[in-house]
């Protein structure tokens, strides 16, 4: 399939060099799985986008409607695809001062799904990253454009057999993967790190929490050390594109693809509509 | 004067929506005073740009030469002007993973100097910001494109009589202004905050430290509480565009424009060539 790009509803592949998304990272983005032509979990993605805009002083009134209209302009892909939506504060303002009435920039980019033909959903190798995520509650949770910590963490390894790295915050608690959220099974409880200080509040993470509770599983959100993660009986990573990737190796430790992970994978939550 | 923009040496005002500067803030920038047609302190600015590239895995071999060639393409402005140089990691790579051989994007934007006809160099009012800067040694010092903390700090006030806000780090130490570095005079010593954990290592700041030492002044770089800043006999802010702005009011406290500040202002360091 060919990429399709829209900027503010018009076919375009560039933005102004004065855009505050480029200058300061004043913007947010979503990476959405398009399955059988339908953007999955769209409502949740748009809601997080709106919440991020509010945190970054980007006006979001009417934004959802505009984005839904933009989506109508795109040709529906026959294969699975990735839809990236970016919303920035647009151009203007004086230095760091946000313009009084910002004119946000909407960027849609529909592209082919990455090649996962090596079936990472059967289990992946991961490592610990040395890069630490800072604790900044003013920015935690939202998927903003200031992602240098993730870029630095991802630059720590080049071995293609390692599919993801786990990252701790500056206090030493485990937060997430560079591009995914982390879950662990200990006993009969599903655990996932608290994201109030650092990390991205993943759409798939929330779907998994909801589905697990609905299935009667106990889910705890807390602060976990690397040692607690390493002591788990099952580990898996998730995001909107990959669904669930079980971890079968973390550095020198091996893990089984266990029943809880298999059950949650079987729900195919990443393909849900709405 | 009219803006003049170049992208990779060619007249252009846009960059690709896939540029990693926009997507992740993987890039650095410099804001340079152009005085009587000459970019001031150019060598220091280009050196900091190169150092920032090295920290962000952006190859900088040949970059300085390319930027100097780009500068030859720009028409020399007759008035004072601002030259903003941005260098990003360019497009490509897979998600956060930096491409194996990045093709950086060079953006030059020459624009009029902001209007300072109210003579802020005679003294300005400033305030304390509530936004805290995180301590991230991996990113401190360099002028990278992840500037949401500055945007949030600057959004804390709208009163145009307040020209700048002072920002502390998460430990409570004073770091800098939202767009400037801070100096204080206590007794016969010039003090300025240490920037190893947070903040931008300003070109003007370094010029001031050098000039002050050359003039026989004692200069100390350290960790200072807001109370220590408030107890100073003179306070001033600096950056490459404004030179030195004395602080005459900080919240309810008033300060004199003192001899040390006046002396350093008289050197007109911001207009230095090289």
From TrEMBL, chains A, B:
Q: Give the reaction(s) catalysed.
A: 4-amino-4-deoxychorismate = 4-aminobenzoate + pyruvate + H(+)
Record key words, sorted = Folate biosynthesis, Lyase, Pyridoxal phosphate
Q: What class of enzyme is it?
A: lyase
Q: What are the names of the required cofactors?
A: pyridoxal 5'-phosphate
| Enzyme Commission number(s) | 4.1.3.38
Question: Pathway listed for it?
Answer: Cofactor biosynthesis; tetrahydrofolate biosynthesis; 4-aminobenzoate from chorismate: step 2/2
Database matches in PANTHER family: AMINO-ACID AMINOTRANSFERASE (PTHR42743), AMINODEOXYCHORISMATE LYASE (PTHR42743:SF2)
Q: What assembly does the database describe for this protein?
A: Homodimer.
Q: What is this protein called?
A: Aminodeoxychorismate lyase
What species is this protein from?
Marinobacterium alkalitolerans
Task: Supply the gene name.
Answer: pabC
